[in-house]
Each structure stands twice: as structure tokens, then as C-alpha cells.
Amino acid sequence: MKPKDGKSSTAPSRPLESIDVQKEQNYTLDIVVVRCIFAGALTLAAYIIEPFNLSGYTTVPLGLGCALAIIYFEHRLKRATLKRLIGAAIGSLMAIVGATLISLILRTTEFDKNSISFINIFILFLMTYVGLVVGANKGDYLNLSALGGIFGGERPIKKIYKILDTSVIIDGRIADICETGFLDGILVIPHFVLRELQQVADSADALKRNRGRRGLDILQKIQKMAGITVQFVENDYPAVREVDMKLIELAMEFEAKIVTNDFNLNKVAQLRGVEVLNINELANALKPVYLPGESMKVFILKEGKEFNQGIAYLDDGTMVVVDNARKMIGKTVDSSVTSVLQTTAGKMIFGKYEERQRGDAGTHGSHGREERPERTGPDRPAHTEVSQ
């Protein structure tokens, strides 16, 4: 039996890591190959041309350093929006024009040639840098749709991320919510959450092991749903030890919401300014509303703490405390709602069982028994006395 358990615990994890991860790995590999070719070509060009009176292998660090600087700039540039790129380009061009005009003025000064060359280079770098940074920061204020053409249909597209934590995956209700279509955007599964699920699935405790496997099955079920996008991210924060704090850091980085049913994580995330979608709060909001005076049929399951109380439960797990129902344990009775108490743990309904049916049955029985003397007629006063 143990080898079978071991196989079932690792089998669900294989499709989880292969979906969407393979495509990302292929793209990353292509980018690395292109960058290596670029760095090698630039280094070789520096070795052949020998700039700045350098010769031999002394040109290799120059070419390699320039290639690494360009690759780093390209890596940072990928995160910029179109508006910021256009703003940075406009700012750089204006700065270059300004630097050129200043250099023309400097030629009329009495500085020596070397000093003027240095000042020109310094102003060129200064103006270009300032124009690039300022233009990129102010680029968000550009209204590209007013230009028409290829920019007419541009709309700011913002991806909506929702991060699932371990507790809500093991709970399983998230799969039912996804099936209804109430969750939009991209469901993000951090690798440290997936790692925690696998550790629970490999636990020596049978209960924890079953919960971990259930969480992996739930993830696999969500991935197969049409219209649901699941994305695995490798972002990790080595300086942060607790998984809950890692979730908060990831949510702040992605500007995402955390989907959980953990009460403590809910409070801490709200203190850090991170929005939280609590499954338990959603379940409480969807429970049927009972007002005082309404009647409900409940099954008395056990005895209550107070005298002559009975305890019943609704289908959604809501506890119903019924007065005068201690003798009706194991039976279905009609209870009249007296009050409803809403707590952080859930909702409690208080009701009262009235023996109206039993009283009505006894009254009908007494009338039936006394109607017989009325038909025979020997004891009419007795009938009058009983009816009173």
C-alpha cells in the first residue's frame, strides 16, 4: 500500500509544473542565446577594431562590458510602457538638440580645446540622461489616442492577478467558484505555495497527506477549466521566511489580490494595504437570510448547553439553537426564528419549538370523543363542561 501512496502523491505534481512553464523556459532560452551572440559579436568587433589605442586582449573587457551594459538596459526597458518609451525618446532628442546648441556657444569661449571637448561630452551626457529620465516619467501623461492612426485604438490594458494561498487550495471551494465564472483575471500560483502543497502531500501524517493530495487535485482541476488562466511564478523572497509574508510581498509586487480563507493572513494583508478575497466571508454572505418570526423545518441532532435546548444544523453548516426541543432529539420539527447572531466565525440562528401540533391534535381528539354523547344525548352537561 505504501508504494501506491507514494506514486499518487507525486503523480499530480508533474502536469502542474509542465503547463505554461515549458513555453516560458523555451522563450528564456531563446533570449539567452541571442544575448550571448550579441555579446560575442560586440566583443569580437572591439578585438578587431582596437578602439582607444587598445590592442590585443585588452579590448575584450571593453567589448564585453559594453555588451553587458546594453543587455542590462534592454532588460530594464522591457518593463516600460509605450507611453514611457515615447516620452523618453522625445526627451532624449530635445536634450541632444539643447546640448548641441550649448556646444556651439562654448566654441566662442577662451577655454582650451581639451577642456571644451570635455565640457561638450559632459553636457551631452547630462542633457541626454535628464531628458531620458524626465521624458519617461512624464510619458504617462501623453494622450496617444488623440494622435489617431496606429495609436487610436490603444487602451491601457491592466492584467488582474489573484494569488491563491495554500489554505484556499486545500479547502477546495475555489474550484466551484471558478466553475461559476465569478473569478476573472489570472490565477497566480507561487512556487513556494506549490512546494508547501507537495510537502503536505508527502507528510507522514495520513490526514495531512490526504489534504495535500486534495490540494494538488484541486489545482489540476482548475487548470483544465475553460476560461481560467493559471500562471505559475517563481518569484521568491529568501529574506522572508513565512509563506504568508511572501504572499503579501508577491501581491504588492504584482498589485494583486490574495484569495484565502485564513483569518490571520486576511488581517495582516489588510494592514499592509493588500486586498483580500476571503472565501469564508463569501460563504457567509451567500447563506440564506432568516428573519425573526419565520418558520423553518430542522432536524434536532443533539442536546444544547442550556436547559431544554436542542441543536440542529442547516445544509450550509449554520447552527440552529432551538428552545423547548430537548425531547425532540432525532426528529424533524417546525421552529420559529427568534433571533440571528452574526459572528466572525459564522452565523447562529436561535429559534423556539412550540408544541402547537401536539396541542391541536389533543384538542381535536377531545372534541371527537365528546361528540358521541351529544349524538346519544344522555350527558349533555358533561360536554359543556369539557368544552369550557
Keywords:
single chain, 388 residues, alpha/beta, Rossmann fold, OB fold (Dihydrolipoamide Acetyltransferase, E2P), 4 domains, six-stranded mixed β-sheet, five-stranded parallel β-sheet, 15 helices, 55% helix, elongated, disordered N terminus, disordered C terminus
> Span from first to last CA?
75 Å
Count of alpha/pi helices: 15
Shape, per Cα inertia axes: elongated
Q: What share of the residues lie within helices?
A: 55-70%
Mean pLDDT: 77
Order of helices and strands: HHHHHHEHHEHHEHEHEHEEEEEEHH
User: How many β-strands, per DSSP?
Assistant: 11
Total separate domains: 4
Rg calc: 37 Å
Low-confidence stretches: 1-19, 357-388
The largest pleated sheet is described as: 6 strands, mixed
Spatial arrangement of strands, main beta sheet: 6-10-11-9-8-7
Sheet-strand content, in percent, reads 5-15%
Q: Name the structural class.
A: alpha/beta
Could you characterize the architecture of this molecule?
The protein has a six-stranded mixed β-sheet with strand order 6-10-11-9-8-7, with no helix packed on it. The chain has a five-stranded parallel β-sheet with strand order 3-2-1-4-5. It has helices at 2-10, 13-18, 21-49, 59-77, 82-106, 113-138, 166-171, 173-180, 191-201, 206-223, 243-254, 263-271, 279-285, 356-376, 380-387; strands at 161-164, 186-190, 229-233, 257-260, 276-278, 295-299, 302-303, 309-313, 319-323, 332-343, 346-353. Helices cover 55% and strands 15% of the residues. Helix 14 packs antiparallel against helix 15. The chain folds into four domains: 26-150, no CATH class; 161-285, 3-Layer(aba) Sandwich (Rossmann fold), CATH 3.40.50; 295-354, OB fold (Dihydrolipoamide Acetyltransferase, E2P); 358-387, no CATH class. With 388 residues, it is of the alpha/beta class.
